[in-house]
Amino acid sequence: MDIDVEMADATIPRPSHPASAGLSNTLIKKSANAGMKGRKRFNKDLSDVQASLKTSPTPTLFGLRTAVKNGDDEGSFILSLSHDGQKVVELTYLISETSDYPSDHTFFTYTDSPPSNAGVVKAQEAIAEREGMTVQDEVVELAFAVAKALSLRGLPSAAWAGGATQADSDDELEDDGEEYDPFEGMTDDEDTGMMNSTTLPKKLNYSLLRQHFHNIVNCSYRPGVTSFSSDDYVLTISVPLTSLTSESTSKPQSDVYIPAQALMAWDRRLLEHPYHFTLLMHGLGGVYPLKGQALKFRVGLTKGGYKPNREQAREASRKFGLVKEDTILVPPSADSLEDVPQYVAEEEEDDEGHFERFSLSDSLEALLDQKFLRILALRESHQLTWGGAEKMFEFVEGLQYSPEVVAATPNLWAQVTAAESTERLRARELPYDPFPDDPTNLPLIAFTYTLRRLLLCTDFCVVCHNELQLETEGEVLKPYVCKKDLCRYQYYVMGAGPSLEYEIIHNPATVDLLVSLCYVAAVEQVMDEPWPTGMAIRVPWSEVTTATAKLPPKRSHHTYSMTGNNYNTVAPEDEEVKTLETVLGRPATYDVDEVVDFDKLGKSQMRAIVSVFLERLPSVTEMRKHLIQKTRPGKTKPKLADLDVPAESWNLLRWVIGSCTAYIEEIRESWEQIGGLDPSWRQFRFVVGAPDKEAKFQGEFGKARKSKPKYPSTYAFHGSPLRNWHSIIRHGLWHKEIAHGRAFGNGVYLAKEGQTSMGGYAQGSSRAWKNSTVGPLTCTALAEIINLPEKYVSNNPHIVIADNHWIMCRYLIVKCASLQEDEEPIPDPSSYAFPDSSTFNPTPKKKPKKKKVVSKPQLFAFDPAQKITMNNKSLEIPVPEHRVNTMVRLMVEEEEERGLIDVDDEDRKVFNWEEPKDEEAKKAAKKGKEKVVIEISDDEEDDVPDWDDDGPMIISKSNSTSSTSKFGSLKSKLTSFASSSSKPKPPKDDWKHDAAWVSKCTENLFPPPVNAAPSATNAVQRELRSMLKEQKDATSLKELGWYFPEEFIGDNLFQWIVEMHSFDPELPIAKDMKEKKLNSIVFEVRFPPTFPMSPPFFMIKSPRFLPFIQGGGGHVTGGGSICMDLLTANGWLPSYSIPAVLLQIKMAISNLDPRPARLARDWDRAYNVHEALEGYKRAAATHGWTVPTGLEMLIR
Description:
The protein has 36 helices and 33 strands. It has 1196 residues and is α+β, with helices and mostly antiparallel strands.
């Protein structure tokens, strides 16, 4: 019997057998176990699924008979799917950590009978990539994927499942007629929470919530509450973005603003509509004040209102949706690519309260979810400002020091003090800080902190959130990543940097241009620093040699001779092409196709591989068309990974976009364009140049203003071959290489007449990215230069400037193959027909609005002696600031015309709440106002480490201004993270870490493993957090028995150093170590790319043990590896944790049977990884154990 099943809150086609809908409802309705977490919730969900299947007359999902039973181990279960009496697949599920269930866990699977169907295999592989799936959701998800792979009937309609042709889909929908709602007949408490009334949760302290709402309003922010059921609601706080700009007529409590030009550089949408910048808090559990919730935050933009509407709020607080194949409403036709206009604007949402994410949403949410509460705890415990608390937290997290150690370390505390001083100096530039005056108002504190980090986003790394260090004294105008390798890897590879999807949808022409310029630079052999290294790109050697052979010889470049106008040819460097032996660092095996690390290739080889991977990208038009497919509400949107493109190509595309530190946008409006240029040239604006160059240019601009206050700068053209522009837009113009000679001196050559640069110097290329739509033929820059001609190297007939800091590209003018068919020819901007609000309206409405006149664009004021021309005709350059200032002014006028948005019924109930009249209720309300209880769930231990079990957090509401009570009394689980006073002090004779000993033992480490799957990376990161958490929580390292030295955590997470210590002093090995004055046994742990399905490889680095054949023991092989069934394919289980494995290894070393472990005479001779591997293989062969597949890859 076939059942159509869909998660969450949408209607689906009626099943062919409605009588079986009970199983559907049982599996997909909102779980009655929502109040539980961890192991208890997992076991209850599992038993509920089993009960549902057992009581169902025919337990069938999507045509597959479904069975679920308990596994052999804790946290495991077995899911079996059969069809026509034949078992299709049987998988054993293991959960990563039951304490993380149901939100932050991952399922891993294995099977004794691998499926033969490739689609079923793919469905199994996808399990480990999903996070936060309940048992119910996972059963439905796998059943659907397997049924789809087998092309079974009973799947949801092909219109969104992709299982039939368009004609079949239409017929099926016509036959079904009605729609089936699986939640029909349920009460509000049973359904998905989409309530139609404004009934608020009953467990709210409305007196306190009203007080907090009024305080929020007093700060010029807008609070809001949206309820979904009696135990589920969200809180929001927002502020109009226009109130934060210099053009605003109303501001929050502090005199703070963000320059409108900076907002445009961060995200072009921020000033396209009158948005409210909104913080949404969810996971509140229907309770206020906050008590035991796992708080989560969402940051975005609310359109047309002060808070998201109910549907959008529900959507924002969801954790996941169905896979993309289940969600497309209308499958694209075969020729849809031609049907969709290229680079069309995304369809606007007309509904008010639409909640949208923007480019900084991910970074801000990660900061709030992972760090905010802990930084807040440090503020209270050490009476710090936000700046000081952030700096202390940086040391606490990065160095794994306690706050007291940081405070007692002079050089660290000096940096905290400096951060405190900086924070106080710029206090007037930042939002009002409510914490000293209202420490119980967590929503207001969270919002002002979020707003503060938005204002300072260019000062902090978007990945690690620590202070951004750049080699510049000026202000960075674009959020960027710091120089740490791990941050750069996450920024470019792991999706923490610019969203490709966002850039492709909203800036397609720029993406096309950047890819085209990178491709030309690569194939013409001029590409140089920066390289796309550190991204774990690996390629077959055969592909390297084939691609390199197709490239032309590297161009010779020229150096200027200071003795005259001649220049000399310099041969290419020797490192352009490397041999396979050089790349591998060992003798090569030519009978197999070696896979090599991109980072170790020669420069020409790197260029060749870059060109190959770019060629495999589809056109930006095709990418965009795929991404803007409509999906059902609550479902996962299409992603680039859905396309059949190598992962290396996507990573390279991320690098192309992310490494461009300038924000480049195409100028589409005629009134914004440079007047007097041929319409066949497409114009791009550099909203901000490369950060370090921009800062230095502004310094020179300030100096020039002293001598020329009216005209400190001017403009000039610079032409350069197309192959050079990939570098120019990252570094600015320089004169390191010479292509055309330097008859008028050494420096950068510019021209006042545009045709001079465009006609001869702006050369094209014989090679082009084949999928480009923009099709750049030549490029010319229009640069702003310092107007001090008397200090130029030459001023006639060409401008020659030796100081690169005097030049900053502002416009890129691109000659294209042809105008796009969907674009009208650009009118001559010199006439400037200025638009009114009917053509320039930040928020289009269905009803026509009163027209507003847009003022004539302000033009750049040229020095009469330094005007620029094109074919001897003057050019007019609009001042870029005029555009954004106009946009802000129009939005402010629209907001003023619309008036203040009234509160809705739910918020009105909070604002109008009256105190209870009976005496007992008054006492309860009074008691509720005196303290706010915040408990951090034990299930969130990864997010908030180091909690004790003494009790809840009490935040005092005293308004005393004394230095102690001013900040309240956060003596709770939060302060247990900030202060070690709540944790028992370690014993005086506790074991002490000796960094010098560990450093000596690890002097000659073999390079770390290079292969890693996403699921393995997630698993290793989880183990890393668990290790650090357990180590920090330990009251005594001596009792713990092992130590994970944080200073030896390298850039590669797949190679660890761990110490084992504090053995029973009566053991022979302990006596040997004491005699040799050895502090610990130092282990190296190497993780395979299939972890946790395969075991890690443990080996001792030092000291050397006495081999078994010489009388030694302790389960240590002659090569230093561990002889244990646990660490082989036979005994390993994915549910094993590293701390548990370390305990087992220590017990094995301590075991006196058959012989005790002893140190060898040459104990100070370190083991190497090769002898460890050989010893491991010998032990496995002796005992008949299976060596894990791919073990040799760990030492390559």
